[in-house]
Amino acid sequence: MKLYSYFRSSAAFRVRIGLNLKGLAYETAPIHLRRNDQSRPDYRSVNPQGLVPTLEDGGLTLIQSMAILEYLDETRPEPPFLPKIPAERARVRGLVDIVACDIHPINNLRVLRYLARELGHDEAAIGKWYNHWITAGFQALEPLLAHSDHTGAFCHGDSPGLADIALVPQVVNAERYQLDLAQFSTIMRIYQNCMRLDAFAAAHPRNQPDYEP
Question: Which CATH architecture has domain 2-79?
Fold first, then answer.
């Protein structure tokens, strides 16, 4: 397997966690988003969208982190990322979508660049934008996790799954932007439980071959 990745990409971070949880070995092909490697013709021939992650598995080329993770879960079912009961699967997917569909897309690098370059916002304004949308998402996630009998050591039960894979990179992003996370005690408890596991710790941006301080 080859994973086209950028150390700071939260979407690539998700896939790294998933690969690690499944115990799958992979080669990292760094795509430096801030240097616009994603616009090179050779990478566009791999992923015409010019985003990361992209996963090559044998003759397959897979894009979009959540699609990749569900592919991994369907082709390598142990340990499972999703519960078996349909209602519980829907719960987990709902938690995932708060991060992957509502928070992440409007805090993506290309959005932040547009805010800076096209709209003229400075770093302080961009940081306020970034943390506003994380806070809005986490204010929904926190009670959904805190008040559910399905929540255990992790987002759903006592084994890490798809919701944890989505949550952890978003917490790391929030920490990077110095968001006060004290109000989100359940989220932080789950995050800390995840980061005690090698699969999550090894996927952290600072542990990637292309990491830059």
Answer: 3-Layer(aba) Sandwich (3.40)
